[in-house]
Amino acid sequence: MPTFLNPIMLFGTLLIGIPIALHLIMRQQPRLMVFPALQFIQQRRDANQRRLKLRHLLLLVLRCAGIFLLALALARPIFQSDNLPAGDAPIAAALVFDTGPRMAYRRQNQTRLDIAQENGQALVKNFPKESDIVVLDSTSPRVDFDIDRNTSILRMEQLQITPAAQPLVESIENAFAIVAKSDKAQKEVFVFTDLSVAAWNRKQLSRIKGLLEKQSDVSVHLFDVGVPDPSNRTLGELELSAQTVSTKSTIDINFDVLDAGGEGQSKHTVELYLLNDEGKSQRRDLETIDLDRNGGARVSMRLSIPQEVGIHHGYVKFARNDNLPIDDVRYFTVEAKPAWRVLIAAPQPARSYARLLRDALAPVEYRRRGLAQFDCEIVPINKLTQHELENYQAVWVLDPGPLSVEIWQRLSRYVNSGGGVAFAFGRNAKQGESFNTPEAQQLLPATLTRQWKVPDSDLRLAPRDLEHPVLSRFKSVATTVPWDLNPVSKFWQLGELGEAANVIIPFDNGRPALVEQSIGQGLVLMMTTPLSDALNDRRAWNHLLAPRRQAWPGLILVVEMTHYLIGNSRSIWNYRLGETAELRLHSEPAQDQFLLTSPSGDVSRVTIDPRERALNVSDTSVPGHYELRAGGTQGTRLGFSANLAAEATRLERVAEDQFDKALGSLAPPIVRDQDALQRSRKLVAGRGTWEGYSWVILIVVFVMAGEQLVSSLFYRRNSEQMAVHPAAEAA
Fold it and tell me: What is d(CA 206, CA 286) in angstroms, rounded to the nearest whole number?
């Protein structure tokens, strides 16, 4: 069935009734002949009348056909068929350009996007006149076609690489939605892509299949602008040992280096830079890496933090760029603060009880050189009331005995106002009843029920996952943490946990080992086994900080617990592109707005969220360092870094047979040049179309000519028959 560009003109076919009415009204009525002698004349008359009726009907058909065909032509019919090739009628076309970071891959002095732009412009210039065209990229979606062909060409010329690109399938879905609104019968979508796995994974192919099944009248063409054998060196995402550190301390920066598609053994030099106060880069470290073809390496670099308090920016990069420079550099931001003051309260002799924890938080050598990130002060538990807890960022209470109501009240006020307190219970808790009082339970996540002894010290810490900030440092070595070398022989069994309590680490028997609870603006951590038993203590409940073999799991654990109490793990200065950066303010600034300077140099204003006391930056579309300032050069300065996701520049290509497996008969043709694209358009399994206006008008001309010929012959013959012969008139 055809479709019509002007269907209202079909009402003109009602005019067919005019010649029919005239035919019925003007037809001659037979007259009765009563003369028997004229029987021959009667027979002759009947024959003539039959011929006259046939001529009338022929003339009626021609006139009706002329009116019908004229109305049909004005309605501009478009005929469609699955077996017709693409024609010259106007079409609805969407050109989708993948502008993700992979399209910056350069070969023979051209990026993949350069090639896509050239072929897109050539394609648009060959479209039939009055076609509807829209150009889409990997940024925000669009809602309608371009104004004209020149606008589409201009948009293609202005296309740029989009580091924070949306998934290609979303741009294709946007293209389908736009062409579906067109009244053009022929609808085509052209996708210019490098066919990399980053854009065409299994999930996205499934979405494409759903589109093709739902809108079967849309033809899709894939224009491959990729290279058959891409090679690329990539810096993986940076893993920082800490994002907030003390001045004069060090951080470890770990990352992967991958050489995909290389030509064999290769050496790569990686450099570590830190920006000074003037924004100039200073190289702090350098390492040379040997890689085999398609090989990878794990790299660890150490950075010494400057003495200046505040935000410090840096980056890691290859000494030489390759064909895809955008993933040859990774940015990072750290915050430097003075050493955090930590108060350790322990039973007498306090220094003996607290020695292991203090050495874990501030090793002797670090204290001697002034590099310790924690400034630990040890006090007897019974003298807690003599110290202003607000002067400390965290408080540890080791193996406490019964505490006075005043101590509980002071600890409670400290936590509610935003402080962090950690309890590690051991033998001094006795029967535990003194920690189940109302004053104690205002802080503790649960009651102490009884001491649990494990035969043969056959109990271990057994984290279920490593997503909690306290455990995040163990992610990179998740399968090699020797928890079994740090056995626990005794612990406190807890009663029912409070509603706000959460188990961070259980034992391998399922009992809680480390529990947290948020109270007011602060935090309480509760360990059910102590952190003060020495290795030579026969009554030791565990060997977490005084292990028989490897000490590092317990040491990392208490350091991360202290950072968590202080709130350092909640300060995030490094993000992926597209993520919203949330920067918490530790103090109330004088201004309520900050000036944001992006890596591209754009400046905008960001307003503080008064409820969260934080700055939220949602526009993180450019990789690099972001600066936020308030109060001028002497005011408040913040900042963060944003990086590409590692998978955003994967250049491995999707095999063509994967399209066939995923899409079956719906798989679109893949072309690599203009000639192949034009052949694809002619042979594409879709709905070919052609407009019938010119052909119908031609038929109308022939019909009207036939009507004129028949009518002239008909009326001339009638007039001759009606004329009186002269001889008869004389007679």
Answer: 45
Apex CA 529: angle with CA 526 and CA 534, to 5°?
130
84 pLDDT tier (thresholds 50, 70, 90): very low
Q: How far apart are CA 111 and CA 225, in angstroms?
A: 9
Between CA 270 and CA 326, with CA 330 as vertex, the angle to 5 degrees is 95
CATH class of the domain comprising 232-321: mainly beta
User: Which is more confident, 335 or 731?
Assistant: 335
Greatest extent of the chain over all pairs of C-alpha atoms, in Å: 162
At residue 365, the pLDDT reads: 87
Q: How far apart are CA 141 and CA 314, in angstroms?
A: 34
Q: Indicate if the pLDDT at residue 57 is higher than 80.
A: no
667 and 212 Cβ atoms separated by less than 8 Å: no
Q: Report the half-sphere exposure of 716 (CA within 13 A, side-chain side).
A: 6
Check if the beta carbon of residue 346 is closer than 8 Å to that of residue 608.
no
Architecture of domain 91-230+657-691: 3-Layer(aba) Sandwich (3.40)
State the Cα torsion 510-513-514-516 to the nearest 10°. Answer: 60
Q: What is the mean pLDDT of residues 667-682?
A: 89
Handedness of CA 463, 464, 467, 468 (dihedral sign): negative
**Is residue 350 scored above 90 in pLDDT?**
yes
Do domains 232-321 and 574-643 share one topology? The answer is: yes
User: Counting Cβ atoms within 10 Å, is residue 25 exposed (0-12), middle (13-18) or buried (19+)?
Assistant: exposed
Q: Between 3.30.450.20, 2.60.120.10, 3.30.1360.40, 3.40.50.880, what CATH number should domain 340-570 receive? A: 3.40.50.880
Tell me the C-alpha distance between 200 and 651, whole Å: 11
Q: Is residue 588 very low, low, confident or very high in pLDDT (cuts 50, 70, 90)?
A: low
Distance CA 490, CA 654 (A): 56
Neighbours of 599 (CB within 10 A): 17
Classify 394 in phi/psi space as left (phi over 0), alpha (psi -120 to 50) or beta. beta
- For residue 64, give every residue at least 6 positions away whose Cβ sits within 8 Å of its Cβ, in sequence order, or none: 16, 19, 20
Tokens encoding 328: 């040859």
Q: Which two tokens stand for residue 585?
A: 């303010």
Q: Which of 618, 482, 459, 599 is nearest to 528 (CA)?
A: 459
If you search the block for the tokens 């047979």, which residue do you land on? Answer: 657
- Residue 512 clears pLDDT 70, i.e. is over it: yes
281-291, strands of its sheet edge to edge: 244-246, 329-337, 310-318, 266-275, 281-291
How many angstroms from the chain centroid is the CA of residue 100? Answer: 11
Tens digits of residue pLDDT in 513-534: 999 999 998 999 999 999 988 7
| Whole-number average pLDDT of the chain | 85
**Tokens standing for 80?**
């469609």
Quick one: which of 573, 576, 557 has its CA closest to 565? 557
CATH of domain 574-643: 2.60.40
Is 87 strand, coil or helix? Answer: coil
The pLDDT of residue 727 is: 47
Predicted confidence band at 250 (pLDDT cuts at 50, 70, 90)? confident
Task: Give the per-residue pLDDT at 101.
Answer: 95
Question: For the chain, how many helices (H) and strands (E)?
Answer: 15, 35
Q: With the CA atoms of 235, 237, 239 and 240 taken in that order, what torsion angle do they form, in degrees rounded to the nearest 10?
A: 80
Q: What is the pLDDT of residue 518?
A: 94
Q: pTM value?
A: 0.72
For residue 655, the number of C-alpha atoms closer than 13 Å in the C-beta half-sphere is: 4
Between helices 693-722 and 39-74, what is the axis angle to 10°?
160
Q: Which amino acid is at 134?
A: V
- Domain coordinates of the chain in residue numbers? 3-76+693-730, 91-230+657-691, 232-321, 340-570, 574-643
Instruction: Please name which of 521, 524, 543 lies closest in space to residue 532, comparing C-alpha atoms.
Output: 543
